[in-house]
Amino acid sequence: MLDRLDQQPPDALLALIKLHDADPRADKIDLGVGVYRTGQGETPVFGAIKAAEQKLVKEQDSKSYLGPEGDMGFVHALMPYIFDGEDPTIGGRIDGMQTPGGTGAVRLALALAKACGVSRILMGIPSWPNHAQIIKDLGLELVTFAHATDDGAADLAALEAALSDGREGDAVLLHGCCHNPTGVDYTPAQWDDIAQLLEGSPVLPIVDLAYQGLGHGMDEDAYGARRVIAAVPEALIAYSCDKNFGLYRDRVGALYAMTADTESLARVMSNGYALARAAWSMPPDHGAAAVRLILEDEKLTAMWQDELDQMRARIRQVRDRLGTAGQVGSVDLTPLAHQNGMFATLPLDKDQIAELRSEHGIYMAGSGRINVAGLTMDNIEKFIHAVSAVAS
Ligand code: LMR
């Protein structure tokens, strides 16, 4: 039986990590997988996480099972940051559950949507490649539209057209902030329009919020998700702490569901628990417990927010430098200055991307996506020169 399986290619993005690691050049640059790096090129554990982990080691008195919902203290502690701080439960209509990373949250959101009759997912492209993989794996139909216009702005008209064709049984998957892979976000005014479009639409909104705090700030980056949930009766939010708490390998995420009335909420969540139980049973505890300990402690919360602010400021600094480089060969870096988060997609072809790797030791995704956080004030000039050399 097993020999009937075809060889699968390794995940292109994850394979880049190994290729980069194997390159002996000292001045190589890793702009591949989305992990934050400091000005020294490191991905350190947050100080607030270290402190919370120490507390956890000291205070945790059991590793006994939680349930498929995970650590509800963690799930609830995040809610005032994601939703309206005054009433994060929106009148008792929102609850959540812990998931293994943002990927687990996206998977569960889509599985839950499928369980209630969704068969088509509307999604702007390009998108994070795993979105399409999960959609396919769940046997859902993917209906695409353009995410961005050629001049580097979010294409609201394309989303509007997709939504106007939307029908019962459709869900739309939206990136809440820091769009992966383009860095092109809907503006607040566009989110206002999106909220209006969704109001009264049969299309179920699913918002993937994986980079909150890396764009303009925790509140600012939640604007889109908050506008959407204020406009519609039902929505799903897939959340990740992998980036904004730097917990990548600990896999910390959450799925939130907003239901039309308070009575349906427990029933909807019970479906989330059942799906989780069948998929991974329970999420890993450690990282989520560390996040909970941070959010329960004022000092640790302030420390985490400060670390997040520093990350965001450094990403902005890199973006500003790229923006001032302007036209570099055939590539215009100017728009990168006003895009958000860790990613940008450069209009480079496969040969140019391969040449950047072979000739200059610069590793980026085959889509032309770069992780701008992989650039530092020490290697950014080399990067700009290399782009100009391959895209002349
Ligand atoms: C990325 O897009 O690089 C990250 O979200 C990591 C991943 O799992 O793909």
From TrEMBL:
The Gene Ontology biological process terms listed for this entry are:
L-phenylalanine biosynthetic process from chorismate via phenylpyruvate
Q: Does the keyword Transmembrane apply?
A: no
Does the UniProt entry include the keyword NAD? Answer: no
Which keywords does UniProt give here? Aminotransferase, Pyridoxal phosphate, Transferase
Its needed co-factors are: pyridoxal 5'-phosphate
What's one GO-annotated cellular component? cytosol
- Highest taxon above the source species: Bacteria
Q: Where is the Aminotransferase class I/classII large domain?
A: 27-386
Kindly list the GO molecular function terms attached to this UniProt entry.
Answer: identical protein binding; L-aspartate:2-oxoglutarate aminotransferase activity; L-tyrosine-2-oxoglutarate transaminase activity; pyridoxal phosphate binding
Pfam families listed in its UniProt record: Aminotran_1_2 (PF00155)
Provide the assembly information: Homodimer.
The family classification in the record reads: Belongs to the class-I pyridoxal-phosphate-dependent aminotransferase family.
- Name of the protein: Aminotransferase class I/II-fold pyridoxal phosphate-dependent enzyme
**Gene source species:** Croceibacterium salegens
